[in-house]
Amino acid sequence: MKTTRRTVLKLGAGATFAAAAPAILTKRALAADKRIAMIVKNLGNSYFDACANGAKKAAAEIGGIEIIYTASAKPTAEDQIAVIDAQIAQHVDGIIVSANDANALVPVGKKAMQRGIKVMSFDSAIAPAGRIVHLSASSTPLIGAKQVQMIGKTLNYKGEVAILSAASTMTNQNAWIAAMKEEWKDPKYKDMPLVATVYGDDQDDKSYREMQGLVKAHPNLKGVISPTTIGIRAGAKAIVDGGLIGKVYITGLGLPSEMKDYVLKGACDTFAIWNPVDYGYSSTYIMNDILTGKPTTEGSKLSMGKKGETTVGKDGECIMGEPFVFDKSNVEEYAKIF
Ligand code: RAM
């Protein structure tokens, strides 16, 4: 139960301060009575910063919503549970999480919901018992298959390929890797074997070292798929630094703003991603529907604002849209956006 309610004045750039409600407050500020915590895998990831910008955009459109964008420094379940606990103690109204571990977060998700806080996940799911709905950026089989198809095309379906993932507990990367392996069963990949899967834990330095380790351990390695914006960027840097352009190619999920130089230099031929600003925006609209009591049972429609509607599927699974593919022809244009 809520006992206190602060009035929060927005200062821009995420800064806020609490004050007694003075007469000069606008109607909108006075109505800012819903606080939504967006808790991501870790801080310092531009992908999530873009998601948070989208969330703030939706909050401004809807009115009366404050977004609290927060995370731990390291992307671990333990640290993330502490951050969620802190938001429960603050009596926020809703929590939108990108989970570092699907199952480890179930108890804290349940605890929040028992206290009347609405919980949903986006990006990386909490298992169904720990949240109301999950918004995937796109269909999991599609995201997985696309990444194998991209490296297949670059390598002309010949040569050893490895996966450089995020942390081994992360729901989204694990689901995409499972989907990649399904695609890999197609006989057209018979000369393009998967030789290793390594984990950079969504840390720049570890991802870089794992990429160097892959190249060393597999002298015939031709391609790497990295389904994480941190991994693909670090892996591409290792290709450039190691003088491996033209010998090893990386693909996966990246931000045009971070991948532009590597695409132009030839370390990466194509990569994919959805618009992270739209992703945070859509998630916030969905949370607003949940907070206003809209049904979330299978078949229900939830608003994603200007991005349309999503239909709740089995186990509260929702989908936002389709990923975009980037190459030399369009990466510079999109680099200006995200
Ligand atoms: C990283 C994170 C995030 C993932 C993107 C593609 O930023 O792991 O969860 O969705 O990559």
Description:
The chain is built from 11 helices and 16 strands. With 338 residues, it is of the alpha/beta class. It starts with 6 loop residues before the first strand and ends with a helix. It has 2 domains: 180 residues, Response regulator (Rossmann fold, 3-Layer(aba) Sandwich), CATH 3.40.50; 134 residues, Response regulator (Rossmann fold, 3-Layer(aba) Sandwich), CATH 3.40.50. 39% of the residues lie in helices and 21% in strands. α7 packs across α8. It has a 6-stranded parallel beta sheet, with helices on both faces. Strands 9-8-10-11 form a 4-stranded parallel beta sheet, sandwiched between helices. A two-stranded antiparallel sheet has the order 1-2. The relative contact order is 0.13. The chain is elongated and about 55 Å long. The site of alpha-L-rhamnopyranose (RAM) has 13 residues, from α8.
CATH superfamily of the largest domain: Response regulator
CATH fold label of the largest domain: Rossmann fold
Overall tally of domains? 2
- pLDDT averaged over residues: 92
Overall body shape:
elongated
Count the E strands: 16
Lateral arrangement of strands in the main beta sheet: 4-3-5-6-7-15
Please render the helix and strand layout as text.
Elements: E1 7-10, E2 16-19, H1 27-30, E3 34-39, H2 46-62, E4 65-70, H3 77-89, E5 94-97, H4 106-114, E6 118-122, E7 133-136, H5 140-155, E8 160-165, H6 171-184, E9 194-199, H7 204-217, E10 221-226, H8 229-241, E11 249-252, H9 256-265, E12 271-273, H10 276-291, E13 301-303, E14 309-311, E15 317-319, E16 324-326, H11 331-335
Parallel strand pairs: 3-4, 3-5, 5-6, 6-7, 7-15, 8-9, 8-10, 10-11
Antiparallel strand pairs: 1-2, 12-16, 13-14
Helix pairs in contact: 2-10, 3-4, 5-6, 7-8, 8-9
